[in-house]
Amino acid sequence: MVHILTGHGCFGKYLDQIVGREPSPSCHECGALQDTAFHTLVECAAWGPQRALLENVVGPVSSLRSMVEAMLQSQQSWIAVSSFCESVMSQKEAAERAREEDAYADSIRRRRTGGRRRRYAHLLLP
User: Fold this and answer.
1) CA neighbours within 13 Å on the CB side: how many for 123?
2) Rounded to an integer, what distance in angstroms lies between the CA atom of residue 83 and that of residue 71?
3) Cβ-proximal residues to 77 (8 Å cutoff; 6+ apart), any chain
4) Alpha-carbon distance values, 37 to 3, 15, 30, 55, 120 (Å)
5) Is the model's pLDDT at 22 over the cut of 60?
6) CB count in 10 Å sphere of residue 125
7) What's the pLDDT at 111?
8) Taking the mean position of all CA atoms in its chain, how far away is CA 88?
9) Which of 27, 33, 103, 105 is deepest in the core (most CB within 10 A)?
């Protein structure tokens, strides 16, 4: 849920502009020009079934603010929002891991393992 609320997660815009691990801010699921938390929550066609389940409980969601307002109305709404976020973000994270592990992926996309640890290993306690 935190990823959706903050926009810091497996979103094309965040991974491109902040983290620097995507060549563009586009959405891998639907091809939209920018993948943001708002896009994932409100616009992306790939998450239509999950969004329909959410909107059956909380009503139409038109913004992050309306989602927060809806989830604070009842425990049932909270659970619906939590389920939507968990379902969507777990799938986005799995797809991101697959792109990182792809041997043919762009070099900026591949996971950087242990570079920081190697640089600062001499400072760690034995």
Assistant:
1) 5
2) 11
3) 57, 58, 70, 71
4) 8, 12, 14, 17, 34
5) yes
6) 3
7) 56
8) 8
9) 27
Which amino acid is located at 73 in the chain? Q
Residue 66: partners with Cβ closer than 8 Å, 6 or more residues away: 60
Look up the pTM and report it.
Answer: 0.78
Count of positions (residues) in the chain = 126
Alpha helices per DSSP H over 2-123: 2-6, 12-14, 37-38, 48-58, 64-71, 75-101, 115-120
Residue 61 near residue 88 (C-beta atoms within 8 A): no
Beta-carbon count within 10 A of 117 CB: 9
Q: How far apart are the first and last CA of the chain?
A: 38
Categorise residue 112: left if φ over 0, alpha if ψ from -120 to 50, beta otherwise: beta
115 CB-near residues (< 8 Å, 6+ apart): none
Task: Give the residue-averaged pLDDT of 19-25.
Answer: 86
